[in-house]
């Protein structure tokens, strides 16, 4: 009966999207045509249509249960692959292409109708590191359907010469006709019992003491409010900066920590240029993979706050301090207490989830900010060469959703020998994203000089 039902964690992303938050997940791949002509939009659309078998796990849409008394289900989507492909004008320059990609981020999907789209930008001019015209393919997907760990498999399904079906760990099956009413009746009857069980479990969890010597991962303190911590509007700006992966490797420090240090330097200098105070508790909300946890569905990710140490003036020492904080906090998302909390809230009635996540809290009074920016980072290690109609794969990018009260988000994607740094922001708050990206480039160059 429930083989096609969303786990509570994945359903929460659907509810968040219904509340007006933009929770969709965008990712993109960039291809280089070199001396040859770039493929046309029609050719790329036909190419994807021929890969229907490899993309079969994506062919689904959400069906809600009557009254919202249980979590939604996945139903089979019989629409053609070609109907999910959107082709943009040929010959855009890289700046115009990124503007159109940013526009996609402002147009959330309704997963009940369409859970994903492929946006094709053919013949893009002026992309750094490319020798010829570029082709950019952007996957825009509901976060209830996909999360970061599936990106490598999805890239292979889309662009490998001999594609296998995309693998999405934790994905339930899709039903032709989900059996909604039996699940609704069963869960409606269980609402009182599930509520009592949750309250009892919450009391027990609050009484559980943290063993001596073990970090208390549940503690996330409010941070100093900055210009970045205000309710964002509907518009987005997007920038991607491809860097040489070798240039961000420093012995003894993780690549993610080097990137966070660059963000620390860039943010501090951005505040200085705008005569704004840089908070001493400058921090980033960083996603953390949680592999193997069935209770999380496809979204096997958590997050924690990493201090960026702006008070450390020595750049090398700052990088070490950020790295130390990052290593310490990486255990938070999979700590015994956090996993117990996830198991506990998974048992909440669906109506409780809808109430909590399906309404965006008002901006006044402003909520206490947990961090000043957001980062998600992934390494796409593929044993298979990727290409698109004889165009060579060069780099990939993605972005996390921009939080309602955090106006600036970053991502790092390592693929091949390129480390792509992407930035999304509300341009009404971060009014000069190109200036900020220049500060990021300079910060990475300074850190590379220390290696």
Automatic annotation (TrEMBL):
Q: Which residues form the signal peptide?
A: none
Look up the domain of life of the source: Bacteria
Q: Which Pfam families does the record associate with it?
A: WS_DGAT_C (PF06974), WS_DGAT_cat (PF03007)
Q: Which InterPro entries match?
A: O-acyltransferase_WSD1_C, O-acyltransferase_WSD1_N
Domain (O-acyltransferase WSD1 C-terminal): give its ranges: 299-447
Q: Which residues form the O-acyltransferase WSD1-like N-terminal domain?
A: 6-250
What protein does this entry describe? Wax ester/triacylglycerol synthase domain-containing protein
Originating species: Nocardia jiangxiensis
């Amino acid at each position: 009966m429930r083989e096609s039902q969303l786990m509570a964690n994945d359903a929460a992303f659907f509810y968040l999207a219904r509340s007006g938050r933009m929770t969709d997940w965008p990712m993109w791949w960039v291809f280089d045509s070199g001396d040859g002509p770039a493929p046309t939009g029609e050719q790329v659309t036909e190419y994807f249509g021929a890969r229907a078998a490899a993309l079969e796990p994506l062919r689904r849409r959400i069906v809600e249960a009557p009254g919202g008394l249980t979590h939604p289900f996945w139903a089979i989507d019989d629409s053609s692959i070609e109907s999910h492909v959107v082709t943009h004008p040929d010959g855009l320059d890289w700046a115009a292409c990124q503007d159109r990609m940013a526009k996609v981020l402002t147009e959330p999907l309704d997963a009940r109708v369409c859970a994903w789209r492929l946006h094709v930008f053919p013949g893009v001019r002026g992309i750094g590191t490319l020798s010829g015209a570029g082709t950019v393919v952007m996957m825009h997907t509901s976060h209830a359907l996909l999360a970061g760990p599936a990106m490598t498999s999805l890239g292979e399904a889309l662009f490998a010469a001999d594609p296998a079906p995309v693998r999405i760990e934790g994905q339930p099956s899709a039903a032709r006709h989900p059996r909604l009413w039996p699940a609704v009746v069963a869960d409606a009857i269980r609402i009182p019992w599930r509520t009592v069980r949750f309250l009892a479990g919450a009391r027990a969890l609050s009484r559980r003491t943290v063993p001596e010597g073990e970090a208390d991962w549940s503690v996330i303190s409010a941070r100093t409010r900055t210009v970045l911590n205000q309710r964002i509007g509907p518009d987005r700006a997007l920038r991607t900066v491809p860097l040489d992966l070798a240039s961000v490797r420093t012995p003894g420090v993780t690549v993610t920590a080097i990137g966070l240090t660059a963000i620390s330097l860039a943010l501090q200098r951005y505040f200085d240029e705008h005569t704004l105070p840089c908070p001493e508790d400058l921090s980033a909300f960083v996603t953390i993979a949680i592999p193997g946890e069935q209770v999380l569905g496809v979204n096997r990710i958590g997050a924690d706050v990493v201090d960026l140490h702006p008070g450390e003036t020595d750049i090398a020492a700052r990088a070490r301090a950020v790295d130390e904080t990052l290593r310490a906090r990486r255990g938070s998302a999979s700590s015994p207490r956090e996993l117990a909390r996830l198991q506990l809230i998974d048992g909440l009635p669906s109506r409780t989830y809808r109430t909590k996540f399906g309404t965006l809290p008002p901006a006044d009074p402003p909520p206490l900010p947990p961090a000043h920016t957001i980062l998600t980072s992934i390494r796409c290690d593929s044993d298979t060469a990727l290409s698109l109609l004889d165009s060579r794969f060069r780099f990939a990018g993605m972005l996390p959703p921009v939080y309602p009260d955090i106006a600036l988000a970053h991502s790092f994607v390592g693929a091949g020998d390129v480390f792509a740094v992407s930035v999304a922001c509300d341009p009404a708050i971060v009014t000069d994203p190109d200036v900020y990206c220049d500060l990021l480039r300079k910060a990475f160059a300074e850190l590379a000089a220390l290696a």
